[in-house]
Amino acid sequence: MKLKSTLLIGSLGLTIIAGQSHAATLLDPQRDYLLGDWNGARSDLAEQGIKFDANITVDTAYLADGGYDAHQDPTYTSQLWLGSQWDLEKILGWDGVSIRTVVTARQGQSVSVDQISDPLAPQMANVQASYGRGNRGSRLTEFSIEKQFKDSGVSVRLGRFGMGTYFNVMSCDFQNTSFCTAQMGKWQGGSWYNTPVSQWGGMLKYRFSPELSAQVGVFEFNPTNIKEDEGWNLSTSDADGVTIPVELLWQPQQALNGLAGSYRVGMMYNTADKIENQKDIVTGEAKDHTYGAWFVAEQQLTSRNGAKQGLHGFMNLSFHDDSTNKIDHMQQVGLKYIGPFEHRENDILGFGLNRIHVSDRYREKYTRLNQDAEYNLELNYSYYPTKWAMLRPNIQYVIHPGATSHVNNALVLGLTTRLTF
């Protein structure tokens, strides 16, 4: 009901705004924010070191065929994002120091959970990326302070933030979770927490050159953080060890075909040893560690007009400890064409394929999972009538949802909408 009310109010608001005399300015394709520049105040604040970023995203999905319970009403999930960046060098004269804050709120119901999944073999991906880990109330998603030692190439960040904000990072131009943000948090989510969840942590980054850097982090492992009503709980009383990610990042400006790319390789190690947090996924035997690794590649392949317009490719591979994790590896590949048509330089045509493999030892015990993998495909078009508004109609197809043949392959029609304030 809250989401429907929010959507209704938002729709009425947009209708009223569009009818005013300033509609032409509001719908200027080059306008960055729905609320504009606040009569110049936004730019003035940015000059002084204070920046704000806010948006609302709504993922709509309809199970058109297949799955566990097709032809039900579409469902909606949403995320409100309120962020800020404070440059304390400009504000207070503190050299190289900045603060980042983010608060999020999610709500809604998922087609993957309610309609696609076999109750005994849930779908592993989700056709609505804004669902989960925060569907009641709000969360402190980030409050961190960074110090950059500019002469040495070292930076340090401390506070509360999600691992996937700075490690295993990839762009998110799809509605299905299997193509969005840090994949480690999707397939080894018992020990790796992505946004909107935050945890106490710190990270050290060293820049060897403008294109090559390495980073390491240490994050408190606290399963209380992922509970629905614990978004503002800062206590460490339920902590159980730490999660340590290490990553090498190469961001060449002239790689394949002389075009820019981004390449990441890394691994993580988790030291939780309480049996309720870390155990053999098959035998139930207590374990005192788990691990995983990843490789991410994003590369522009062609260029139009000497800019980001053109064909881009991406790939994401992950590997997981099959003693503590039912998924032992994942592969993801896809293509995006930015600016596919004349005068549509910000639009994106995208296609992605993802394969999520369940370990043999897990399937031997849980025979309901009689397929070795779940596959997710998505074809979409991200339409930007202005820079502050985005509509992304998409078609998704899920093969063997939950890695079982007891549920039919699922055809999903989706629509992501986003407004940037």
Shape: globular
For CATH, the homologous superfamily of the largest domain is named as Carbohydrate-selective porin OprB
Mean pLDDT: 92
Count of individual beta strands: 16
Structural class, by secondary structure, is: mainly beta
The first-level CATH class of the largest domain is given as: Mainly Beta
Strand content: 35-45%
Distance linking N and C termini: 23 Å
Question: Within the CATH hierarchy, at the fold level, what is the topology of the largest domain?
Answer: Porin
CATH architecture of the largest domain: Beta Barrel
| Sequence of strands across the biggest β-sheet | 1-2-3-4-5-6-7-8-9-10-11-12-13-14-15-16
- Biggest sheet architecture: 16 strands, antiparallel, barrel
Q: Count structural domains.
A: 2
Low-confidence stretches: 6-10
Order of helices and strands: HHHEEHEHEEHEEEEEEEEHEEE
Rg (C-alpha, Å): 22 Å
**Helix percentage range:** 10-25%
| Helix count, DSSP H or I runs of 4 or more residues | 7
